[in-house]
Design brief:
Layout: H1 14-32, H2 39-46, H3 50-56, H4 60-81, H5 92-100, H6 108-123, H7 125-150, H8 154-158, H9 162-183, H10 188-200
Helix pairs in contact: 1-2, 1-6, 2-3, 4-7, 5-10, 6-7, 6-9, 7-9, 9-10
Amino acid sequence: MSATGSAPAKRPPRAEVRERLIEAASRLFARHGVHATTLDDVAGAAGFSKGAVYSNFDSKADLVVTLLRRETDGALRALHEMRVPGTDLPDLPAAIRTAFAPYGPGTADDFSLMSELRSQALADPLVMEVFVEQRRAVLDTLRGLVDQVFQGRTPDATGLSSDQLARLLITISVGSAFDAPATGDVAPGELMGDVVAALLRPAAGDSPAA
């Protein structure tokens, strides 16, 4: 190399390469769909060659599974950050709103990506297996937190079992995210907190307005 020649560009760390590929796939899958997006497209959008994709992922399905896991990791992280042991019942709605504040209300791209990932789960048994595993992890974690907060007295406090309340909160979270493009930017955490507050009101001795 000549004295005036430039040194070859330094390759980013593997973790950075992987994250850039995931971010690129997330954008492209949301905007163009999983089927219409090639791994060449993902590599190009991330600024790498196709070889970088195969150095980090076995296939497009592996990339889809990675995005599914990342989506679930966000929900699990929010649940763990609630630190509900010791939380007084009147403070629970606020704890829910605070924990989920960073994850809502989401964008049109978020909605599109969620739709694409779920469509892939329906089309690919291997992706469906991971989808079921991840969603059950969220349900189990939320059910456990509900049991901790209500100390086994969830039906007395809310009129619902711990399992029913956990499923209701998940339905609210997912449903509000899917409906956001049509119904407006409503944060799932806000709705979840509102529902828990409404369920707790009779237990707190509040009576409905006349």
